């Protein structure tokens, strides 16, 4: 049944994937199997995206399928030990109110086993600092869609430095308009302009790949 | 317009026209590069730029004087109100009043998806469009049956706070206030165009058209929902793209006028879709729209947002000389290999570089891109995305203009 779930998930057969997951989750050890299989499927979708075979439409559909399945799977996992690769504070930087890219990345990052603390959109620089102090993440993800976000990221990183927290964390920036040049300009550790690359690099920064 | 200004305007227009006609002009046409930085350069906030017509006009004129190009760089002066344009598409004379939302207009209307600096956003932020679900999946049939009626009766009241109840005095008052405000804005605009004419820019602008699926995704369903609809209700989505095509074309014609003979078509979902989905749901009505605009006497300028690489070859289905392909992340050199002699290519300047690089590196960068893109003609140099943020180093902008001057001659 795990094989069928994996295949229908990766093939974007939403109805079939949800049906199998519902069945599997009721069996002995089923919830863990569903979780692991869906994670594996999301990883495969990300791989297909990076290979140019899948597109954003598939990432969005996969994220939606994952959330749908987790809704009835996670309550059955209470008490189970779920491994985490590490914690990431994630937000769209001050001045930018876009969320689609951040949300696609978030579900893929969570599916990969990263514990994501989503601090929202238009996040003031100081709020990143507070979240770092509170959650002690290994990783901070900053998103922006519009070009204004570039300097906002730069200032956020400066404020994190001034708070003496820069050396404790790795920073990845993401969004439609970021690039290698922008990464160097703002002083981040990695950049991604798509969610699949973002998750792969986040895992690398966590030393898990 | 003085004789010199007239001649300058004619030269600039001829340069752009030659490129669209796939010829080599005297120099590479350059659209200029600006955005939020225009306000910063004039020493005003983005809030002032968006809410004070006079300051906005002064800022634009100052920037255009110091950074001349083949098209005046106006910057972002508001957001489109596309559902309203469709709802009132049978009233072409109202197009200038209802088609755009700027700061003061938004204060009157309260448009749900608009965020303006100094209001919902920091005073130095950019105006932003944040769509959400304004139409449910159950309403596709109503949209298909009569898109204009549906937009007027159902969607407009959900998007525009002042139009929540079209029978209420509030709605009528807002309409009257809107007309009064637009009269003020129109006077300021005419003054700006007069000054631009003196600087050698012919009056004009761009009409607008949307890929039907983008209209549904951005304005009605919201993108994540639409992506799911493609699998859940494929026939309805397809029928809806066909239904909205005609009124969208009507809006483009409404926006046509003296000096306005090109329709800008900003694509959004192109990068989201696999070739299979693109070819089934997106491209057929976009292509039809471009062909119909040509019949209506308009060239198209399509902005291919993000990476269009997977769909590049579909452009060849259009007749040679159809218009301009404006690229964001698709490598213009790669596009040229495929499209030379068929499609005018626009873009080439990576805005990320202008924000973060140095004048010396930018000089080298522009030299290189022009060296590869100019031969054979059919190329317009432009930023890959039209908004330089406020903090962009002015010396970097200057370096771009100087490099174009140095290396842009045929």
Based on DSSP secondary structure assignment, what is the total number of beta strands of chain A? 5
CATH architecture call of the largest domain in chain A: 3-Layer(aba) Sandwich
- List segments of chain B where confidence is low: pLDDT < 50 over at least 5 consecutive residues: none
Residue windows where pLDDT falls under 50 for at least 5 positions of chain A: none
Describe the main β-sheet of chain A briefly: 5 strands, parallel
What portion of residues of chain A belong to β-strands?
5-15%
General shape of chain A:
globular
The tally of helices of chain B reads 18
Description:
The complex is a heterodimer of chains A (209) and B (410). Chain A has 209 residues and is α/β, with parallel strands linked by helices. Chain A is built from 9 helices and 5 strands, in the order ααααβαβαβαβαβα. Chain A has helices at residues 2-10, 14-25, 30-50, 56-73, 100-111, 125-135, 148-162, 180-186, 195-205, and strands spanning 86-92, 114-118, 139-143, 170-174, 190-192. Chain A has a 5-stranded parallel sheet, with helices on both faces. By secondary structure, chain B is of the alpha/beta class. Chain B has a domain at 45-202. Helix content of chain B is 52%, strand content 9%. Chain B has helices at residues 3-20, 37-41, 46-51, 53-66, 82-87, 95-98, 103-109, 140-145, 147-159, 169-198, 212-221, 223-232, 234-254, 275-295, 332-339, 351-356, 359-373, 394-407, and strands at 79-80, 100-101, 114-115, 128-129, 207-208, 262-266, 299-304, 323-327, 344-349, 379-383. In chain B, helix 11 crosses helix 13, helix 13 (234-254) runs parallel beside helix 14 (275-295) and helix 17 (359-373) runs parallel beside helix 18 (394-407). The longest helix of chain B is centred in the middle third of the chain and has 30 residues, at 169-198. Chains A and B meet through helix 4, helix 7 and helix 8 of A and helix 12 and helix 16 of B.
């Amino acid at each position: 049944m795990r094989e069928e779930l994996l295949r229908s998930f990766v093939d974007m057969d939403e109805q079939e994937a949800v049906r199998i997951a519902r069945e599997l989750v009721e069996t002995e050890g089923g919830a863990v199997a569903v979780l692991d299989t869906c994670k594996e499927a999301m990883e495969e979708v990300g791989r297909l995206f990076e290979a140019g075979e899948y597109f954003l439409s598939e990432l969005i559909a996969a994220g939606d399928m994952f959330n749908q399945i987790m809704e009835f799977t996670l309550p059955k996992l209470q008490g189970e030990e779920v491994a985490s690769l590490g914690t990431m504070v994630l937000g769209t930087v001050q001045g930018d109110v876009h969320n689609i890219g951040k949300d696609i990345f978030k579900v893929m990052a969570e599916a990969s086993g990263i514990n994501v603390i989503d601090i929202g959109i238009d996040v003031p620089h100081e709020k990143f600092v507070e979240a770092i102090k509170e959650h002690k993440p290994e990783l901070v993800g900053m998103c922006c869609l519009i070009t204004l976000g570039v300097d906002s990221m730069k200032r956020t990183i400066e404020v994190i430095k001034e708070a003496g927290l820069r050396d404790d964390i790795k920073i990845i920036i993401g969004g439609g308009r970021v690039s290698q040049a922008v990464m160097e300009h703002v002083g981040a550790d990695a950049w991604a302009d798509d969610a699949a690359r973002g998750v792969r690099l986040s895992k690398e920064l966590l030393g898990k790949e | 317009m003085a004789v010199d200004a007239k001649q300058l305007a004619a030269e600039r227009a001829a340069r752009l026209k030659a490129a669209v006609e796939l010829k080599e002009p005297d120099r590479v046409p350059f659209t200029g590069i600006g955005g939020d930085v225009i306000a910063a350069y004039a020493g005003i906030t983005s809030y002032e730029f968006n809410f004070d017509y006079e300051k906005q006009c002064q800022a634009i004129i100052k920037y255009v004087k110091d950074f001349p190009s083949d098209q005046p760089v106006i910057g972002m002066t508001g957001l489109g109100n596309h559902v309203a344009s469709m709802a009132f598409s049978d009233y072409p004379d109202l197009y200038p009043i209802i088609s755009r939302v700027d700061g003061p207009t938004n204060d009157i209307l309260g448009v749900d998806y608009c965020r303006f600096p100094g209001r919902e956003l920091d005073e130095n932020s950019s105006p932003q469009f944040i769509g959400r679900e304004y139409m449910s999946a159950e309403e596709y049939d109503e949209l298909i049956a009569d898109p204009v009626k549906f937009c007027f009766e159902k969607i407009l009241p959900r998007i525009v706070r002042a139009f929540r109840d079209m029978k209420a005095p509030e709605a009528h008052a807002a309409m009257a206030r809107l007309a009064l405000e637009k009269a003020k804005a129109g006077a300021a605009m005419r003054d700006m165009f007069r000054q631009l004419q003196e600087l050698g820019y012919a009056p004009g602008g761009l009409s607008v058209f949307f890929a039907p699926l983008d209209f549904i995704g951005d304005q009605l369903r919201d993108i994540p929902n639409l992506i799911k609809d493609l699998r859940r209700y494929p026939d309805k989505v397809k029928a809806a793209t066909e239904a909205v095509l005609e009124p969208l074309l009507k809006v483009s014609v409404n926006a046509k006028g003296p000096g306005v003979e090109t329709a800008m078509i900003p694509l959004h979902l192109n990068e989201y879709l696999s070739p299979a989905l693109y070819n089934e749901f997106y491209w057929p009505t976009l292509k039809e729209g471009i062909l119909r605009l040509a019949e209506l006497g308009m060239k198209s300028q399509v902005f291919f947002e993000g990476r269009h690489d997977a769909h590049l070859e579909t452009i060849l289905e259009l007749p040679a000389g159809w218009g301009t392909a404006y690229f964001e992340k698709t490598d213009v050199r790669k596009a040229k290999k495929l499209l030379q002699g068929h499609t005018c290519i626009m873009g080439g300047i990576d805005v990320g570089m202008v924000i973060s690089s140095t004048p010396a590196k930018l000089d080298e960068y522009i030299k290189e891109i022009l060296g590869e893109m100019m031969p054979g003609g059919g190329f317009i140099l432009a930023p890959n995305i039209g908004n330089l943020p406020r903090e962009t180093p002015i010396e970097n902008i200057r370096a771009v203009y100087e490099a174009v001057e140095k290396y842009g001659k045929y």
